[in-house]
Amino acid sequence: MKLRSFKSAHFDFYFRLSTLKKHAGNFMMSMAVEDADAWWKHITDIDLPGKYPGIVAKPPTTQPWGLRVLYLSDPTGVLWHIGRQTPRINISFEDW
User: Fold this and answer.
1) I need a surface site. Which of 1, 17, 22, 78 has the fewest CB within 10 A?
2) Got the DSSP string for 48-59?
3) What distance lies between CA 78 and its chain's CA centroid?
4) Is the pLDDT at 55 greater than 60, yes or no?
């Protein structure tokens, strides 16, 4: 089995270099981090999009519900939501 690895701080991620497209195309992982912007900097510093052409790599944005999140797909097509919960925004149902 062929593997690729990605190391960040105290975590190692291992990716198998084969895929079941039906599974991977419908699979998402979420990971809570303290600083989504720092993760994005690391992703761009090591040039993951250049190393793995065709992957999804979108910088962090703050969603209307308060989550600051970036999107990154691994080489098999699994979409990762890497995000940090920002301070709560109080929204009432009347605002919708």
Assistant:
1) 1
2) HHHHSTT--EEE
3) 9
4) yes
